[in-house]
Amino acid sequence: MNLTTRQEVQITTDPSRQWLPRISGDQVVWIDERNGNWDMYGHNLSYQKEYQVSSGQDNEAWPDISNGTVVYVEYVKRTQPNLMVIKMPDVVR
């Protein structure tokens, strides 16, 4: 949604599956399968800027975001879950 005009706006264009979005302020994060596994991506709605949050070979899932801090679960070798936390830099917030 465009926060000023309150109209829906598509923020992903990759044909791969994107799912489980979470929002905090003008930041949206989600699971993205464009690289063949589950990675975390984000989008700044104010600046219309997409960014990659995680890019490991393992699957990352269950994202959430609050005040520029993203939490998610990384599944090492698809079986061992690790809770991950990353503070997004100001350039994407």
Summed up:
The protein is an all-beta fold. It has no helices and seven strands.
What does this structure look like?
With 93 residues, the chain is an all-beta fold. The protein has one domain. Helix content is 0%, strand content 51%. The protein has no helices and 7 strands. The chain has strands at residues 18-24, 27-32, 39-44, 49-52, 59-66, 69-76, 80-87. The strands form 2 sheets. It has a 4-stranded antiparallel β-sheet, with no helix packed on it. Strands 5-6-7 form a 3-stranded antiparallel β-sheet, with no helix packed on it. Strand 5 and strand 6 (69-76) form a beta hairpin.
Q: Please give the number of β-strands.
A: 7
**Shape, principal axes of CA atoms:** globular
Report the sheet with the most strands, covering strand number, pairing sense and barrel closure. Answer: 4 strands, antiparallel
Query: Helix-strand pattern, N to C?
Result: EEEEEEE
Number of domains: 1
The average pLDDT is 89
What strand order characterises the main sheet?
1-2-3-4
Structural class: mainly beta
What share of the residues lie within helices?
under 10%
